Every structure is written in C-alpha cells, then in structure tokens.
Amino acid sequence: AYKRIADTLGVERYQGIPLFLTDDTLTAERYGLDGLLTRHLGEQGKFTKVEPIFIGGEWYAPTQYIKLIPDSVVFNRAVFVDRHNQNIATLERKEEGHWLIRSMNPATTGQHRPPYAQETPLGMFVLQEKKTRMIFLKDGSAATGGFAPYASRFNNGGYIHGVPTNAPATGIIEYSYTLGTIPRSHMCVRNATSHAKFIFDWAPVNETIIFVLE
User: Fold this and answer.
1) Does the 77-213 domain belong in CATH 2.40.440.10?
2) According to CATH, what is the number of the domain 17-65?
3) Cα 40 from Cα 68, distance rounded (Å)
4) What percent of the chain has pLDDT over 70?
5) Nearest one of 180, 181, 30, 52 to 126, comparing CA atoms
6) Around Cβ 22, how many Cβ atoms within 10 Å?
7) Do β-strands 87-93 and 17-19 pair in parallel, antiparallel, or remain unpaired?
8) 94-118, pLDDT tens digit by residue?
C-alpha cells in the first residue's frame, strides 16, 4: 500500500533493521523496528546476536545498526501509549522501587492512510532523540508543512510531540479537540503541547523506555 518493501508482518525495510536467522546471514528473514529495546548477546564478525524484547527470538543483525546502552543504565522513567484508548501516561520509579504515575493525558496516534500516514508501531522502544521543533513536509511535496513542538523520537518516524502548527502559521497551539478520539497522526503520538513539553523536559534520552500498546 505504501509502495515500499515490507516483510510478511508489515514491517518496512525503509529505516528498518534486517534480522537474519542464526543459520543464514545471506537473506534477511524479517525487519526489526528502529529503536526497539533489544538484548545484546555478543558480536560475531559484522553481525551481532540479538534478542528483541518485544518480538522475541534470537537473530543476527548487522552491528552497524546496534546502539549499545551501558549496563549501568536503569530505566526509571517510562511512557505508556495506548493505541486502543488513545491516551498516554508517564510513570517514574522511586528509590524504594515503587512506580508513581506522573501524568495521564489524551493522545492521538497514527492512522493507516497510505501512502503518507501509517500506524504508530507497537513495541518497547528507547527514547533516542529530542527536537524542540520537528519540521514536517506537506504530503506528497518537498515543501515545509509546518512543525510539531517538543518532539521526542522513539522510532524512525515516530515522535511524541505537541499539537502541530501548519505553515505559514508560526505560533504554538496548546490543544486540539481531536486528542483522545481516533487515530489522526502520520505515525507520531500527538499530545497537548504542555504535556509534550513535560515529557521533553522530564524524560532523558537513552534512559527512558516507551511502551506502545494496543
């Protein structure tokens, strides 16, 4: 539907990570999503043996696509995205081991609308990057469509961000009546802008885990 190459589970090769069976490193069996939390089981030549937590199994992946997180990192901050109910929650683990809910808000996830919009992928991801303003393009064009404020990236095209501002407008929009209703985004998780800023300020890169659930 998107005129791109995908495996039988619908995961696209575009910005995906080829996963090989442990007895065949010539032809990829499937693709792994960018940003998935994965166990590192050791390097063998140009490949690393991995076990993606969400999809399971042991695979070989090209080492160039693996980003190591130090063993000293403990995920004390977590974001839960509920695609079914269109909401988002943040939790923080305290020293005594208790998890506290920091926020709960309506959200809008990605919709299936080829060729430009697709669902927010399910999985367990690590927060990878932050952008104060994430610039996006108009569908089917190289022209700037506007920006999304306080964007926190967890997947190739998946960000948690505030309400988008469409060009030529330049101001910040706090809320949209569509939040918490039905999927309307291109892949991202849209929030009220103040909540997106809270996550942007509160969640450290490489130390925050993001669960996208159905």
Assistant:
1) yes
2) 2.30.30
3) 8
4) 100
5) 52
6) 14
7) unpaired
8) 988 899 999 999 999 999 998 889 9
